[in-house]
Design a protein that fits this description.
- The protein has about 260 residues and is of the alpha/beta class.
- It has a single domain, classed as 3-Layer(aba) Sandwich (Rossmann fold), CATH 3.40.50.720.
- Helix content is about 45%, strand content about 15%.
- The protein contains eight helices and nine strands.
- A seven-stranded parallel sheet has the order 3-2-1-4-5-6-9, with helices on both faces.
- The chain is globular and about 50 Å long.
- It starts with 11 loop residues before the first strand and ends in a 7-residue tail after the last strand.
- Bound molecules: nicotinamide-adenine-dinucleotide.
- Nicotinamide-adenine-dinucleotide binds next to helix 1 and helix 4.
């Protein structure tokens, strides 16, 4: 998928979960289109690898390891990026975990697994947006793109109630935020991926039975790519999406159209 030269020249973007999958593809493409990108995830080595690829292609980025569920850490990472570049324009709130071994039918799931999924996926996005919003307001405006999932709106993920609830929560939070900040020149939107081939889905991609099951749920007949999601994230963050507020852009090969 070709980058659009200089679409984000002068823009300063934060991407959480930037070491892998959709976050990685998004960070690479922002940098390829001229943005400076702050790369956030818990562990430095994965972020360093993405930074190396960005710098090798002539892009600019910062590696800021932080756990988005720990308020001091995510606040400090976002603050550091804003301090280095004199402000921020774009926040992509993307980090999440899926715990297929621990998420379970509602009468069986442990409180610990429930809390871990809600804390990482929903509270993590709350804290990322909360601290990102301060800097977007200081800059006089900007864009936030949250990552949801089809399972947040459709009861399609058997035995994954906690992951599904975390994504449904993001959908609700995103729409309220979109309303609250539109008049402050901050556009809040989300991308809702369907079945995407990323490390999060390794357990499906490596199991022929599950791979066939999930591919059969998609009219286009295959998993999507991280790059196809990144293209939608960048579009929502760009000036081309200037009339999109509270939009949930579904990227799912038709999965939710069935
Ligand atoms: N892959 C799919 O099929 C799919 C489908 C629907 C939605 N999504 C959503 O897309 C987004 C990206 O998923 P992906 O498939 O690229 O997953 P992935 O597992 O490849 O990447 C997740 C990223 O989040 C980071 N992360 C996890 N917990 C963190 C924490 N506490 N603090 C900071 N970083 C943390 C990881 O280190 C990694 O960089 C997620 O929000 C996911 O729920 C993915």
């Amino acid at each position: 998928m070709a980058a659009i030269a200089n679409r984000f020249a002068g823009r300063r973007a934060v991407v959480t979960g930037a070491s892998s999958g959709i976050g990685r593809a998004t960070a690479l493409r922002f940098a390829a289109e001229g943005a400076r990108v702050a790369l956030i995830a818990r562990r430095r080595p994965g972020l360093d690898a993405v930074a190396e690829a960005i710098r090798a292609a002539g892009g600019e980025c910062l590696v800021l390891p932080a756990d988005c569920t720990i308020e001091d850490q995510i606040a400090a990472a976002i603050e550091e990026a804003a301090g280095a570049w004199g402000g921020l324009d774009i926040i992509v709130s993307n980090a999440a975990v899926e715990l297929p071994e621990q998420d379970d039918r509602l009468d069986r799931i442990s409180l610990e697994a429930w809390n871990r999924l809600i804390t990482t996926n929903l509270t993590g996005q709350f804290l990322t947006c909360k601290h990102g919003l301060r800097h977007l307001q200081s800059a006089g405006g900007g864009a936030i793109v949250c990552l949801g999932s089809n399972v947040g709106n459709l009861g399609m993920a058997a035995n994954e109630p906690a992951y599904s609830a975390s994504k449904g929560g993001i959908f609700a939070m995103m729409r309220v935020m979109a309303n609250d900040f539109a008049r402050l020149n901050i556009r809040v939107n989300m991308v809702i991926p369907g079945f995407i081939d990323t490390p999060m889905n390794d357990f499906v991609m490596r199991d022929p039975v599950q791979l066939k099951y999930w591919s059969d749920q998609v009219p286009i007949g295959r998993a999507g790519t991280a790059e196809e999601c990144a293209a939608a994230i960048l579009w929502l963050a760009s000036d081309e999406a200037s009339y999109c507020v509270g939009t949930a852009l579904v990227i799912d090969g038709g999965q939710s159209a069935i």
